[in-house]
Amino acid sequence: MKIVATIARYLLGLMFMVFGSNMFLHFLNPPLPPGLAGQFLGILFAAHYFYVVGAIMVLSAILLLANRFVGLGLTLLAPVLFNILTFHLLMEPGGIGLGAFATLLWLLVGWEHRPVFKRLFAARLEE
Questions:
Q1: Residue 72, pLDDT above cutoff 70
Q2: Per residue in 5-30, pLDDT tens?
Q3: Range of the domain at 20
Q4: CA 126, CA 94: separation in Å to the nearest integer?
Q5: DSSP string, 26-86
Q6: What is the tally of structural domains in the chain?
Q7: pTM, full prediction
Q8: Closest by Cα among 88, 80, 7 to 40
Q9: How far apart are the C-alpha atoms of 77 and 113, rounded to whole Å?
Q10: CB 8: neighbour CB atoms within 10 A?
Q11: Has residue 125 been placed in a domain?
C-alpha cells in the first residue's frame, strides 16, 4: 500500500503542479464551456480569483512532491477538490473524470497519512 500511496502522491503533485502553473502561464487554453459554466469561469478569470487558486495548487504540489508537510498539502487541496467536483456535478458533468481521479488519488495519499489527521478528527483535545 505504501508504494501505491507514493505513486498517488507523485501523480497528485504533478497534476496540481501542471494545472496550478497553468493558472499563471496559460499554456493550456481550452475554450470556455457554454452556458452557466462558461459564465462562472469567465467571472472567476476576470476577478483574478484563479491566481489564488493556482497559488494554492502549486504550493500544495510542491509539498506533495517534496514529501514534506504532506498533511498540510492535502489540507490545502481538499477545498480545491471539493470545488472542482461541485462545479462539475452542478454545471459541467461531462468533465468530472479528472476531478474524480484526483479525488481518488487524494484519498489514497490521505489514507497513508491518516495519523496526521488524527487530532483534526478528535472530538476534544486530549491533555
A1: yes
A2: 999 999 999 999 999 999 999 999 98
A3: 2-117
A4: 45
A5: ----PPPPSTHHHHHHHHHHHTTHHHHHHHHHHHHHHHHHHTSSHHHHHHHHHHHHHHHHH
A6: 1
A7: 0.92
A8: 88
A9: 14
A10: 21
A11: no
